[in-house]
Automatic annotation (TrEMBL), chains A, B:
<dbReference type="InterPro" id="IPR036388">
    <property type="entry name" value="WH-like_DNA-bd_sf"/>
</dbReference>
<dbReference type="InterPro" id="IPR036390">
    <property type="entry name" value="WH_DNA-bd_sf"/>
</dbReference>
<keyword id="KW-0663">Pyridoxal phosphate</keyword>
<dbReference type="InterPro" id="IPR000524">
    <property type="entry name" value="Tscrpt_reg_HTH_GntR"/>
</dbReference>
<dbReference type="GO" id="GO:0008483">
    <property type="term" value="F:transaminase activity"/>
</dbReference>
<dbReference type="InterPro" id="IPR015421">
    <property type="entry name" value="PyrdxlP-dep_Trfase_major"/>
</dbReference>
<keyword id="KW-0238">DNA-binding</keyword>
<dbReference type="InterPro" id="IPR015422">
    <property type="entry name" value="PyrdxlP-dep_Trfase_small"/>
</dbReference>
<keyword id="KW-0032">Aminotransferase</keyword>
<protein>
    <submittedName>
        <fullName>PLP-dependent aminotransferase family protein</fullName>
    </submittedName>
</protein>
<comment type="similarity">
    <text>In the C-terminal section; belongs to the class-I pyridoxal-phosphate-dependent aminotransferase family.</text>
</comment>
<dbReference type="Pfam" id="PF00155">
    <property type="entry name" value="Aminotran_1_2"/>
</dbReference>
<feature type="domain" description="HTH gntR-type">
    <location>
        <begin position="8"/>
        <end position="76"/>
    </location>
</feature>
<keyword id="KW-0805">Transcription regulation</keyword>
<keyword id="KW-0808">Transferase</keyword>
<dbReference type="InterPro" id="IPR051446">
    <property type="entry name" value="HTH_trans_reg/aminotransferase"/>
</dbReference>
<dbReference type="InterPro" id="IPR015424">
    <property type="entry name" value="PyrdxlP-dep_Trfase"/>
</dbReference>
Length: 477, 477
């Protein structure tokens, strides 16, 4: 393992235990926690480690210190909304074109002054801009001819080496030659779909599903079968088996870790079963694993690719969710479809800009990535809890919500009669952008749902925006 | 006009006249030219302007100075090989798959130590690397969040403004909102073809034709009709008219200025007639104009787009042939297909990396591009003449060759029984790479042709490589 997360630090162990007690309501809101000295005695740790554990919990918004008094629980999981249930998509015809909605919400994502809960990329204030910039300048100096010449079609060699090395983290064993770099993860998914399908084919996806995949699939004439999806564990192999019996499915697409938008993380056994099943049927799996590095637990979840022995999994990822969406650096390990994917890249754009890839490679190589991830995970975990509490407080009591263990996306289900596309338009009047649920299906579903990103710095402005959103939703009642 | 080429400088006028006399053999090899003083008297110019005219011609390899004696003609156009004739492609089946050949020649273009006559991009030694690097660093500093965030789908605003401004040079009148930036010109062509065709459609192209377009067209299931093409003027509207009568053509693709590989430049009247004809038939024209800035004459040729009043021309270009192929910066003005092209870009890769676009925009804005182009044109013009002379000297007498007035590509036709794919393999033994003619058609044609790029610094090594290539060709006789 490289740059292994220092998850075995004592303070993390102890704060993890306390967090669990808060979440299971053993410790309730308002409860006083042991004094720092007491904690240090109980666990045979130094006072400073005990303090560190409390600071960590405070940073996440789970506890608070009161002057002259000590630490108190401030988080109440019962105030979190109920969890969403397993989706059961029907295949009815959609009344409003999904592309129209996506177009309106997404085609311009650079207008200023909008609180952008709609965009599933990290805001600049939580990114290591100065270090990235330094890495870019170094890359420009280091590259042959300063990056002005074509690089290999397969992509920057340093980056492919680092991605291969890093694959150990999720149980992979990739070689640099297994990997093709792409212009971000969407570009990787696009090449994979083009490599393994032809117009008129059917693919099976989770539901709700990342709209980028939906609209790309439509643009190349694919039919899309949306599968029932559990908000904790994702798609059940039994449901896939049924679908394979009834439909001529040419490929599956799943975001296996902290999926967009449901936030589920498929358990290891389920991943393994899924890989085995699809392999038996000769149906390739496009695995979108671009949130996998942003876990809130103790270690990175595995990927389906790590169980793939036959090259049947096309594993896609990028640094768009962790470092720099604008760099457009992604990659794919396409298994036995390597040649086709490489050719598609060559046909569509010859090569990729090399400087950004070189800069990211050096980030991965030197430990700067792991260093940044540790901080990012903590920020996002804390954000997720703050968002959940705020939504519990500001939104109407009847709503349901996802409970992601990583990533930075929440899925919220409102009362059935509320149309979140309408809500989106109202919210935009107040410079608040949300992603309406209808974007995440080709069928008439999720009109009462919305996706919220918490990939930003928590500020009073964000708090106010959530409160305003709650107000707008309550107006429907 | 911006940064207008100082083509009205007196020394250029005079050297241009002398060049014409050499080319028309009024002045023959070995002829003594007037002394500098005499030239200055004849034309009522200063001695230094007269000297400048001779330096200019010397730089091009057309004349030479002999110590204590003066200037002499050293170029003989009669030693240039005969010109290739108009292509008459038949539509017979090809025996060897074009993709196999392309794959072998092109899939790896980074092996070191090869004299790369095969690659139609400028070598780093004739590019302004230091200035580009500086522009990149500045761009990273100037961009919001240092270029880490998504930019507008349509592309960097500064770059689109500069491309629009620059369009005046070729008779265009584009607005920034008419333009979508892309990952190089091939990427622009790819989006255009996807926007206006569907699998099974037929497109008409010049012949021989840029292989990138051929293989992309095949990859999306298009049929390709190859049209007769004149090496000086390109495709004749009458031939297009005939093709439109006999085939259901959905789009045309032409490289109108200094085409790749024939090198023709379509005359203005022909461009205008072509645009009118295709507009009447409602058949869109994809115009690839990426060599247009590298003209050897007095001004930039116009584009078909400049005659387009109905948005029927999708004009594609890039800086890959003039500044930095590795930056992957290109663009397209897709006329009435703007929305479709923009959506395709969004679907395939969301946005482009922004730093390279910003750097190129500043190059265009500040006159550094025009400054570089002046030098580049002179280098390439001189190279073209040196290559033509060397080929005339080293290659067998029977060969034919193109006579480009811009760009950096020569098309050479050898004796009918010579297979240039075989020649390619032999040349590679000597670390010389050429592009075999068979790559430029889907049919059994051009097996005895090859494409040579002269986009590099002329060196003894280049001279030796051409001599060796000549030897290998003579071995076939």
């Amino acid at each position: 393992m490289i740059n292994k997360d220092k998850g075995d630090h004592k303070y993390l162990l102890i704060s993890g235990n306390i967090e669990q007690q808060i979440m299971s309501r053993v410790l309730k809101i308002g409860d006083k926690l042991p004094s720092v000295r007491m904690l240090s005695d109980q666990h045979e740790i130094s006072v400073s480690t005990a303090l560190q554990a409390y600071y960590h919990l405070e940073g996440k918004g789970l506890i608070e210190s009161r002057p002259q008094s000590g630490y108190y629980v401030r988080f109440d999981p019962s105030r979190s909304p109920r969890k969403v249930e397993k989706s059961m998509p029907h295949q009815e015809i959609k009344t409003k074109e999904v592309e129209t909605i996506i177009g309106e919400v997404y085609d311009d994502f650079v207008s200023p002054d909008v609180v952008r809960f709609s965009l599933s990329v990290p805001a600049p204030e939580i990114l290591p801009l100065a270090r990235l910039n330094k890495a870019m300048m170094q890359a420009l100096r280091d590259l042959p001819a300063n990056g002005t010449q074509y690089e290999q079609v397969q992509g920057n060699g340093l980056l492919r080496r680092q991605v291969a090395r890093w694959s150990l983290e999720w149980g992979g064993h990739l070689q640099p030659d297994d990997i093709v770099t792409t212009a971000g993860c969407m570009n990787a998914i696009a090449y994979c779909l083009m490599a393994i399908t032809k117009p008129g084919d059917t693919i099976a996806v989770e539901s709700p599903v990342y709209f980028g995949t939906l609209r790309f699939a439509r643009s190349i004439g694919l039919n899309v079968l949306e599968l029932p999806t559990d908000p904790d564990t994702g798609v059940d192999p039994d449901d896939v088996k049924r679908a394979l019996r009834n439909h001529n499915i040419k490929a599956c697409f799943f975001v296996t870790n902290f999926s967009n938008p449901l936030g589920y993380c498929m358990p290891d056994e389920q991943k393994e079963a899924m890989v085995r099943l699809l392999s038996q049927h000769g149906v390739p799996l496009i695995e979108d694993d671009l949130y996998g590095d942003v876990y809130f637990g103790r270690s990175r979840p595995r990927s389906c690719k790590s169980f793939d022995e036959e090259g049947n999994v096309l594993w896609c990822s990028s640094i768009s969710k962790t470092l720099a969406p604008g760099y457009r650096v992604g990659w794919v390990a396409p298994g036995k479809y390597l040649k086709q994917v490489k050719h598609l890249k060559l046909y569509h754009s010859i090569t990729s800009p090399t400087a950004q890839q070189e800069a990211i490679a050096s980030f991965l190589a030197t430990g700067r990535y792991e260093h940044h991830l540790r901080k990012l995970r903590q920020t996002l975990h804390a954000n997720s809890l703050r968002f959940i509490q705020a939504i519990g407080e500001y939104f109407p009591p009847g709503i349901k919500m996802s409970d992601p263990k990583g990533g930075f996306i929440l899925w919220v289900e409102l009362d059935k009669h509320i149309d979140t596309y309408q809500l989106y338009r109202e919210a935009m009047q107040h410079k608040i952008s949300i992603a309406p649920g209808a974007m995440f299906s080709l069928h008439d579903r999720y009109q009462n749902c919305l996706r919220l990103s918490y990939g930003m710095q928590w500020t009073p402005q964000v708090d106010r925006a959530l409160r305003k959103l709650g107000e707008l939703i309550r107006n429907y009642e």
